[in-house]
Amino acid sequence: MALYKEQSLKLYNSISGEKEIFKPINEGHIGMYVCGPTVYSNVHLGNCRTFISFDLIFRYLKHLGYKVRYVRNITDAGHLENDADSGEDRIAKKARLEQIEPMEVVQRYTVDFHNTLQKFNNLPPSIEPTATGHIVEQIETIKTILEKGFAYEVNGSVYFDVFKFNKDHNYGKLSGRTIEDMIANTRELAAQSDKKNPQDFALWKKAEPQHIMRWPSPWSDGFPGWHLECTVMSTKYLGEQFDIHGGGMDLKFPHHECEIAQGEASTGKNPVNYWLHANMLTLNGQKMAKSTGNNILPNEIFTGENDNLSKGFSPSVARFFMLQANYRSILDFSNTALLASEKGFNRLMDAYRNTAALPVSSTSTFSVSEWKQRCYDAMNDDFNSPILIATLFEAVKFIVGVKEGNEQITLEDKELLQTTLNDFIFDVLGLLDTTVTNQDNSDKLSGTVELLIKLRAEARNNKDFATSDQIRDQLMAVGIQLKDGKEGTVFTLEG
Ligand SMILES: [Zn+2]
User: Fold this and answer.
1) What is the Å distance from ligand 1's center to 320 Cα?
2) Residues 69, 31: contact at Cβ < 8 Å?
3) Ligand 1: distance of its center to the CA of 162 in Å?
C-alpha cells in the first residue's frame, strides 16, 4: 500500500492562510509547478534556498508514493528590469553589456543554475520548459483572453484589464490586497503608459526598434509579458487545474496574482489548489545585497572565499543548515550558524554510520516504531524539516546510548532504525554523507600507496622480484603508476 494512504499530509496554503489537509485532484498523482529562475546572472543563495525548499517537498511527496510531475520553468525572455512592465529585458541588457548573444547569456546562467543545484543535491524537475520555447502557446492564450474580453490592445501591445476582471473575480485574493490599496500605492503616472490603468499588466509588449528578443504576433513584433509564461506552461503540462504551485515569497504579488487572473480569465477555472511560498534568506541579520557587500554566492560557501566566512563548508552542510529552518520562516545565514550546523551534521552522519555495528539485545529501551511515526508527523505538518531534524537527533542520542551500553535495541528495531534513518536523511532531506571528503580520500590513498611502495622496496632488497613486480603491475592495473628515481619511488595517477 502506498505510504500516502497511511499518512495525513497537511500543508499551509498561502491563499487560505491555513494549514489544509492535502488532497490531490487525481488520487496518487500530483502536479506541481514552481517558478524557476530568470537566467541573466549567477543564481544567488536566496534562490537556492527556495529551490532546496521545493526539492524537500518534491522528495517527500515522492517518498509518500505519489507520482509527481514537477514542472519548473526557465525564464529566458520577457522579464523586464521593472516588474511594472517597464525597463530593459534583463537578459537582453546583460547581452548588451557583455557584447554576447542573449542566448549565450541564457546558456551560461542555465548551466550555472543546474550545476549549483546539483551540488546541493537537488533532484531535477520532471519538465523544465522555457519561455522562448512556448511563444506560440502564449500568443494563443492572449487571443483567448482577448476573446473573453479581459484584455485590450493598444499600439501593438496587449494588456490585461484588471478592473474588468475584478468585477466578477477577486484580483488580490492571494496577496490579500484590494484594488483600492493598489491604487493608493501606485506611483506610476497613467500618462506615461498605454495602459488604461497602472494596475493593468502586459500580456504582449511591442518591441522597441533596439529590442532584439522579438517574435511576430497578430499585434506586433514583440515579446510576451513575464507573468504569462507560467500560466501557459503550467496549463500545458499540468492541466487547467493542478495541485501545487510554489515559488519565493516575493513572487506572490504581482506575479502569482497575475497568474491566477490569467488562468481564470482564459479557462474560467481557478488554476491552483494549493499555493506554497518559501521565505527569504538574510545574511548576518540583513537583506543580502551586492552593493553593500552583504552577499554570498553559493560557490563562495564551498570555497570559503568570502569575508563573511571563516572557512569553506560542504554543500550538504549548507543544505542541512537551510533545512534546520521551516521553509516559511526567514532564515539568517551566518558563519556561526554554519559552524554549528556542521557539528550537528557530522554528529548525525556519525550516528548513522555507527548504527550497523550496534550490539543487539532481547529488548529495546526506545520505541523505534513510535519515533518513526514522529518523523512522519513532522513532515506531515507542512514539511516541518526542523522538527524532523530534532526528531532524528532523538535517535542520535539513543544510538550513542546503545554504543556506550546505557541503552538496548533488538535486531528488528535496529533494522527499522537503519531504514528509517536512511529514508529521512538521504531520500527526504536529500543530504549526502560528505564527512569523508575528497581531501580525506586522497590522504588515505597516498598513505596506502606509500605503504605499498615501502613493501615493494623491501621485496626488492630481499631479491623477491616476483612480489615487487606484482605490486607494481597491480597498481598499474588500477591506474597508479610507480616511477623509480634518484629520490626514491614516486607515484602518479593515470587519467
Ligand atoms: Zn512564475
Assistant:
1) 27
2) yes
3) 18
Q: By mean pLDDT, which of 4-18, 67-81, 328-342, 479-493 is the weakest?
A: 479-493
Residue 415 above 90 pLDDT?
A: yes
For 110-118, which contacts have Cβ atoms below 8 Å and span 24 or more sequence positions? 110/39, 110/74, 110/76, 112/42, 112/43, 113/37, 113/39, 113/43, 113/74, 116/42, 116/43, 116/48, 116/298, 116/299, 117/43, 117/48, 117/51, 117/55
Q: Which segments of the chain belong to CATH 3.40.50.620?
A: 3-278
CA of 276 to the centre of ligand 1 (A): 13
What's the 247 CA to ligand 1 centre distance in angstroms?
A: 7
Distance of CA 285 from the midpoint of ligand 1 (Å) = 28
pLDDT digits (tens, 9 = 90+) for 149-164: 999 999 999 999 999 9
Length of the chain counted residue by residue: 495
Contact 227, 201 (CB under 8 A): yes
Output the 3-class SS for 119-171. HCCCCCCCECCECHHHHHHHHHHHHHHHHCCCEEEECCEEEECHHHHHHHCCC
Could you tell me the fold of the domain covering 282-428?
Answer: Isoleucyl-tRNA Synthetase; Domain 1 (1.10.730)
For ligand 1, the distance from its centroid to the CA atom of residue 346, given in whole angstroms, is: 37
- Inform me whether the pLDDT recorded for 410 exceeds 60: yes
Cα(34) to ligand 1 centroid in Å equals: 7
Tell how far the Cα of 73 is from the centroid of ligand 1, in angstroms: 7
Q: Cα(261) to centroid of ligand 1, in Å?
A: 13
Q: How far is the CA of 33 from the centre of ligand 1 (A)?
A: 9
Residues of the chain with CATH 1.10.730: 282-428
How many angstroms separate the alpha carbon of residue 427 from the centre of ligand 1?
Answer: 27
Q: How many helices (H) and strands (E) does the chain have?
A: 16, 17
Q: How many whole angstroms from 228 Cα to the centroid of ligand 1?
A: 8
Fold designation for 3-278 = Rossmann fold (3.40.50)
Q: How confident is the model over 271-291, as pLDDT tens digits? A: 999 999 999 999 989 988 777
pTM score above 0.85: yes
